[in-house]
Amino acid sequence: YIVSTSYRTAYHFQPPRNWINDISGLMYYKGIYHNFYQYNPHCALWCWGDITWGHSVSTDLVNWIQLEPVIEPDNPSDIDGCWTGSATILSGGQPVILYTGGRRDKRQVQNLVLPKNPSDPYLREWTKIGNNPVIQPVVPGLNRSQFRDPTTGWIGPDGLWRIAVGAELKGYTAALLYKSEDFLSWTIVDHPLYSQNYSSNMRKCNMWECLDFFAVLPGNNSGLDMSAAILRGTKHALKMSVDYFDKYLIGVYDLKRDAFLPDTIVDDCRLWLRIDYGHFYASKSFFDSKKGRRIIWGWSQEADCRSDDVAKGWAGIHTIPRTIWLDSNGKQLLQWPVDEIESLRTNEINHQGLELNKGDMFEINGVDTFQADVEIYFELTSINAAEPFNSSWLFDPEEHCCEAGASVHGGIGPFGLVILASNNMDEHTVVHFRVYKSQQKYMILMCSDLRRSSIRPSPYTPAYGGFFELDLAKERQISLRTLIDRSAVESFGGGGRVCITSRVYPAVLAGVGKAHMYAFNNGSATVRVPQLSAWTMRKAEVNVEKGWSAI
Ligand code: DQQ
């Protein structure tokens, strides 16, 4: 198979060569979007001590130019790697970066860098300050090798800056809270922003990595600046990357207690909602002051074998930036690809008023099936056939997606999209829904099933899944938007209630044949498709190798 070129994405963020991982600092500064990320300039693998801060810039979040790495390991406070951190724009407009440094003795410390020339909108050069590290792991009971990933700072009512740092402390996983007047000298607050005891039923919950803490308004997709005055009705989201997924809690930031209080306490972190139910980790959000929205994106690691990564010469992509906001019910976050990505759409095709009976497959022709954006609305003709919901499925939606795959007939569903399908269907990926009845409400299962996505033996091909609630008395339509970009598939179900990122490596993509795409239904109840639109997606200019001096 022609591994090296065919799996490279056409409009996702990735480096021309080498390894990338976490999103490490995002900001909009003097007309430019900045993406800083974990980057190994030497090869396509993650290696201790090699990790620097890669840097790319953009004016539209679609096309990117890669600049020189900005922070490299070169002193005892980061010699084992310049790991994840965050950017903050201080009150006078000055940008700063805090990042975790790995030391040889395995202690993790927090370091500060400042731009050499803040009037340069590209912020190409950064200087480590003399008194690094600015935060040491000195708290009694702290595990010194589990103390990392400082958040973006925010200002509290006392005018002091605050940040949170993920840590393992005396049997707790915690978001430790630090305060500072000047961003240079920090003191720990006597209680964490939030913490959780490791207990037996949470044995799967590890240290919280890549914390993110941000303000949201129910039902309002305008973003909020964390340092602005807190508006009435504001809620807060605490996001943590843990156990292979990015999870979050919704609650309030109690200013008197200086603590995050989740709306509901769920001890078992397997039940926490996820930013994305697929192959997505280490996301970060930022307030986009240009358009007044909050944007988030995450890292999607390769799911093929390491020897293929080495052969390709690159590994890791970032997902499409998404606007993120809180649903009007105040319970869950919604996400939608930023509008800018629609500038890549071409060759639009449309279908209206399709009817899909049990066993129907409707082929979607006329777009490049390897590089497409598909939006489809499924309308339920009746909800009586919904099968009963079993709440134990919430612990392991992946397992339920395996049991209830696209070929298993149901009452309502499975229905959805079959993509990247070879002529004889020996390779295909399915994104589908099922509707279940749970007492007074309906629960929708969304799966991204990769089990037949490749005939090649090496890729990791699970069935990802997530559930969302839908008031079917009010809303009879379930929408699906799927962005297909060669080895990346990002799906947004129910208007962004469940998002699933997947990585696929079909042989059909490596030049063996043409791929097909179908809308299908395999449930006993007929579903209508009032609207189906699809586009071919053009290639974006993403980090094209021109040399650092291109701008
Ligand atoms: N990756 C970074 C760490 C972070 C982890 C190192 C999460 O700072 O906790 O590359 O993917």
Describe the structure in your own words.
It is a single chain. By secondary structure, this protein is mainly β. It has two domains: 16-337, Tachylectin-2, Chain A (5 Propeller), CATH 2.115.10.20; 345-537, Exo-inulinase, domain 1 (Jelly Rolls), CATH 2.60.120. It contains three helices and 38 strands. Strands 27, 29, 30, 31, 32, 33 and 37 form a seven-stranded mixed beta sheet that branches. Strands 9, 10, 11, 12, 13 and 14 form a six-stranded antiparallel beta sheet that branches. A six-stranded antiparallel beta sheet has the order 26-38-28-34-35-36, with no helix packed on it. The longest helix is centred in the middle third of the chain and has 7 residues, at 306-312. The two termini are 36 Å apart. The mean pLDDT is 95. Bound molecules: 2,5-dideoxy-2,5-imino-D-mannitol (DQQ). 2,5-dideoxy-2,5-imino-D-mannitol binds at residues 21-22, 38, 51, 83-84, 100, 148-149, 209-210, 241, 281-282.
